[in-house]
Amino acid sequence: MGHTNGLAYLRTDILPNMWCPGCGNGIVLSAMLRAFEALKLEHHEVVAVSGIGCWGKVDDYITVNALHATHGRALSFATGVKAANPRLRVLVLAGDGDGTTIGGNHLIHSARRNMDLTMIMVDNFNYGMTGGQYSATTPGGRVTSTTRGGNPERAFDVCELVRAAGGNYVARQSIAEGALIQKRIEEGLSRPGFSFIEVISACTTLYGPNNGLKTPVDMFRQFKEKCLPKEKYDRIENAAAKGYLTTGVLHQADAPDFLSQYEAMRGRLAAAKGGRA
Amino acid sequence: MSRHFELLLGGSGGQGLVFVSSFIAKAAMADGLNAAQTQSYGIAQRGGFISAEVVVSDQEILYPKVTRPDLVIALHEAAEPHFVKLDSKVVFDSGLMDSQPRPGWAGLPFTDLARSLNCPKAANLIAFGAALHFAPFIPLEAAEAAARESFPSGAAEINIQALRLGRSEAVKKFRGGRLR
Amino acid sequence: MARKQELIQGNHAIALGAFYAGARFYAGYPITPSSEIAEVCARELPGLGGAFMQMEDEIASMGAIIGASLAGVKSFTATSGPGFSLMQENLGVAIMGEVPVVVVTVQRSGPSTGLATKPAQADLMQLRWGRHGDQSLVALIPATVAECFELTVKAFNLSEKYRAPVIVAPDEIVGHMRENYAPPEPGQLEIVDRAQPHGLIEDYRPFNFEDGAVAPLASFGSPYISHITSSMHGEDGYSDNSPDNAGRRISQLHRKLEKNIDDIVMTRSFDLDGCDTLIVAVGSAVRAARAAAKEARQRGRQVGVLQVVTMWPFPEREVRRAASRAETVIVPEMNYSGQLAGEVGRAAPGARLIRAPSFDGRGLTPADITAVL
Less crowded by CB within 10 Å, the N or C end of chain B? Predict the structure, then answer.
């Protein structure tokens, strides 16, 4: 069967989408739909849970089941969906403000619980939909609409955070690597437990121009220069301080996920009950 | 004549007031009565004043809390200031409470008696057994039936012993001291 | 043969009522005075083939039960005022997305942490107006352990029937008290399940904005594809921000409850015939009111009690009718601000209202009411 770029999962009659020209969301959407196709997912077995923000509007463009929830809380809705029907493939689609800033508590606990979800966090380093304010991933010193003098706060390394909290799969790619994004999504969907894929993306209307990157092409060039696989990244001195990011699969583990642990507990409870009777 | 009885219990967190008040309600149910049990406590898991209330009746219980206690059980000195103003018979733990003699107050060393059974936690049931001497609002047999139904057989036996010990000690010390 | 009487706590009865109604998923966060509900669920749901989850906060708890309900499992949570505050935003998702869920909030004394173990009825307005936006929901308030069980079953039924969140809001006294009660046999009480779609898969729409309509709700994982969103949407669940659509959407959310008001609004009457003094009460105050009324009748007074069972939508018609025959309407309630009295006054503008408030964490006693009789 020849591939069709995941078109079967795209809602075409609502296009064009709402995103700005040059925005990275389209690349991530396309990678996700191609991953669905590569994994031969049936529409009705997939639930995409999105939060609020530019990337959170993605539910309008897909034809699988969708739940568009509240800002920061997509993970908790997704947790309920998965717990109620473990056969479903549940994705969580949130941006950096949504997924790690207001939603940071749910992120660490979803990773700790090792809930079998695949989260695709599009990181554009600011709140796009509300006008370009700084988020928990905006690097220190960067200019946003609420850090005109340069960001006095530091950024999270969200991948490191999810790894430390206990997620089974952590990967990062930039939008300059569409085929790899697709691969990571396939890997995340295929691995039980909590999978987290950070996609470094371009806000070409706000964050880029605010920080000297006037065009989408400028942003792309920078991602190609600064987002490096680990072996290249490790050869650069003070790479993090110079704004470099590691890409690729950053962490993989096979810890049992929440639902398998819950089934084990159910068995223990039943055995205890049976033993007493 | 309708049967209606209101029992107020006071003590300190950890003494099993919710347990014993619930048990009293079950004992009344074993005698065919309606029962309502409520409690009032603070934020501590252990210590502090706790009260529990039981209302039993052969009619529908409209208000589930005690308005005029027919009998009061005090298990700890923390309860004393709350109960001194009450115009009710008070059965108290004379081993834990250094209470001065008051009219209507009858002390028995419930906790010491419970230790003699090798079951210090049973002090509250001993107090209930004693209470049934002062106010036999249900027969002891109903309480024993409730114990058999509520606990596994070993625990039921020790709890029944506690109930009987409480009543017999009360009979011994306060023969004829029944309420009303 | 009558079922065996058991001594059951109000909170416990709520959990049992939820299981009876078919609830198989609970997500919550511990808070006094509701935690017993979580504990019963944690103990019993695994054996019922369901799941209990203790979430990181009440926000996540509310999200999780909405997600689980959309996956086809009847779901609920339990909390108290402070946690209910945190649930408000996601409760809005259940309203906007028309997701059946039941939320139990056992009312305690506030504001804020307040008297965490003491009773109050000061969240009556929070139940109704806690969320932003132009919305409405159903809230039921039990006064007995039996009602804790039976109103929880009713709450699930209403939520499934009208695809709306339903709140059960006992005060601490009712949640924590134990009474003898014989839970009903399976089949004894009606159980309602949400309507399922039957037509062609491509024709399925998760919403229906016709006046007062309620669309069938496909579960995630069924052959039907479902789009549920907190944003303004069309009947297909995709964005539609046109004024025409927004107007129809908002009015349907209200109309589905308004058109079925007789099915939703419940009151109980005690000795209303010929009474010249009416007491309107809710929750544990009903118990004090009935005791005070009985005592007054023994003294020759004509006193009746109207119990507000469905707090929201408020039983305006029933209150107006009862108040029209009384010279005096007494409203005992466990708050300073007169949250119930305000609604009674709105429903019966001509009534001579006397308030009997209690807000010190002690609860209302019959004597508090007798004092104003």
Answer: N
